[in-house]
Amino acid sequence: MTWLVPLPVTIPLLGAALTLMLAGRPRAQRTISLTALTATLLVSAALLALTTTGGPLVVAVGGWAAPLGIVLVADELAALMLVVSAAVTVCVLIYSIGQGMADGHEETPLSVYHPTYLVLTAGVTNAFLAGDLFNLFVGFEILLVASYVLLTLGGTENRIRAGATYVVVSLLSSVIFLTAIGLIYAATGTLNMAQLAGRLDTLPDHLKLVLQGMLLLAFGIKAAVFPLSSWLPDSYPTAPAPVTAVFAGLLTKVGVYAIIRTETLLFPGGRATVVLLVAALLTMLVGILGAVAQSDIKRLLSFTLVSHIGYLLFGVGLTSRLGMSSAIFYVVHHITVQTTLFLAAGLIEKRGGSTALDRLGGLARLNPVLAIAFLIPALNLAGIPPFSGFIGKLGLIEAGVADGGPLAWLLVVGSVLTSLLTLYAIARVWNLAFWRAPHPSMPAPDAGRCPPMMVVPTLALVTLGVALTVVAGPLFEVGDQAAGDLRDRAGYAQAVLGEETP
Predict the structure, then answer these.
(1) Measured between alpha carbons, how far is 442 from 1 in angstroms, rounded to an integer?
(2) Residue 177 lies in a domain
(3) 476 closest CA partner among 331, 325, 327
(4) In angstroms, rounded to a whole number, what is the distance separating the alpha carbons of residues 159 and 487?
(5) Residue 277 to residues 22, 38, 271, 480: CA-CA distances in angstroms?
(6) Cα–Cα distance, 281 to 419 (Å, whole number)
(7) Are 139 and 124 in contact (CB under 8 A)?
(8) Which DSSP string corresponds to 446-477?
(9) What 3-state class would DSSP assign to 360?
């Protein structure tokens, strides 16, 4: 069944080509896009089932065997990321169609939106399946090109300015990543990650630390890790709601995925783990303090996005199996919940005419469905029992306590404080936007209604977020097995190269 492995990349790319050829035919473009992403979701689910029971699946692109050729590797972690990303992209696409973005609206040119969205999806899936560093770099660059187009749709001054900042920061990250790739190749003679797992161990410690630091710097920018995160709150809120939602849910997680993959496979137990833990603590606290200070819902959610990246780094930095499995669970939770909240913010803007808290009010009475669509994922994000956010944070806290180090205990305290401040921030949004009397500037009760095609995918993601609580046990088992596989470097090398790691 290895023929399934390239399909999550090739299906969106073929769909992008077809939708570009069908510019000017919106119904055909919508049909192709939805079909392509649904097929990607089904293939991803099949890959998850196969890798859970049979181990990693490896494909040598073009028949060129590793380490000379490009390999795509689907293990449990990659397949799990493929499933959740495909589910999110399908829901966001339906939402965007309901918003009218794909119907010739001036903010989203028809000939651009569908192809670019599918190319973005291909970039995400390629990054998850990449078995060598250069192919991972290619995945990031596909993301950069597609995301810049989506971020600047409509060509408004604010979007161009935010897009320019995003591109400059992303290019800086890419230059650092490409430089690190060149140095790694010069030092080891390969970029295949399975082969690097053995060859990097033979390098001097100081050289390994430099290479690890450069990769962490590049991925930290892409993942919006403090102090490399200041670009995100200024870039994301200017884009249309669906674009912001898919960016918030997926793009930073690709950076986190790259950190997980390289830290476990290439630099296990390296000296940079202390840096990761310190960055995790600062990312949590600085991000959530920024969220508390915001008066706009989109900017507030952008800061919570940054803040909760810290939880993911917390699990990775602990290097324990429990910490890693909790981080994997939390990645799935955070992709789902953060995307849902940004879609809900789009509904708030549609119904209330703004996302500024001082111009909203009474939404709980005017639109109870919208109130539910915001409240449930918001409580989930804050980690209120029994939601998946609570389960993921509890696992991370348990891993921190088990570690027992002073820095781990600081992170335990910081994670609890961050959760409390997150609850305060969303309670403030609820009080001002939903609970108090409507603001005079808001649309009349019979105006600004949300189209069903915007509401339904949002509620679908709300349901998915709740379902993560119901299936938390099996999902944690998958995460634990994936964490075990990540720590088994020899098994990865055996699957890719047919030999044990030296």
Answers:
(1) 55
(2) no
(3) 325
(4) 42
(5) 49, 38, 11, 21
(6) 13
(7) yes
(8) TSSPPPHHHHHHHHHHHHHHHHHHHTHHHHHH
(9) coil
Residue 107, exposed/middle/buried by CB under 10 A (0-12, 13-18, 19+)?
middle
Q: Which helix (H) or strand (E) holds 330?
A: helix 321-352
pLDDT band for 154, please (50, 70, 90 cuts): low
Per-chain mean pLDDT for the chain = 88
| Whole-Å CA distances, 284 to 31, 139, 313 | 41, 27, 10
Rounded-to-10 torsion of CA 404, 259, 243, 434: 0
With a cut of 60, say whether residue 164 has pLDDT above it.
yes
Asked if residue 140 is part of any domain, the answer here is: no
| CB 111 within 8 Å of CB 20 | yes
Average pLDDT over residues 81-107: 79
Cβ contacts of 387 within 8 Å, gap of 6 or more: 376, 379, 380, 465, 466, 469
Q: What is the pLDDT of residues 221-272, one digit of tens each?
A: 999 898 888 888 877 777 788 888 888 888 889 999 999 999 888 888 767 8
Its domain, for residue 429, covers 272-446
Q: Which residue has the tokens 């060129």?
A: 64
**Considering the domain boundaries, does residue 71 fall inside one?**
no
Q: Which residue has the higher pLDDT, 493 or 414?
A: 414
Instruction: Report the C-alpha gap between 394 and 414 in whole angstroms.
Output: 13
* Rounded distance between C-alpha atoms, residue 431 and residue 445, angstroms: 19
Residues forming beta bridges with residue 192, ordered by sequence position? 132
Strands (E), 42-196: 57-60, 71-74
Count of domains for the chain? 1
**Structural domain includes residue 477:** no
Asked if 15 and 35 count as a contact pair (C-beta separation under 8 A), the reply is yes
**Amino acid code (one letter) for 470:** V
Q: What percent of the chain has pLDDT over 90?
A: 55
* CA 396 – CA 411 distance, rounded (Å): 9
**Amino acid at residue number 8:** P
- pLDDT over threshold 60, residue 499: no
Distances (CA, A) of 309 to 48, 217, 375: 24, 15, 21
Q: Which of 264, 272, 266 is nearest to 486 (CA)?
A: 264
> Is 488 in contact with 500 (CB distance < 8 Å)?
no
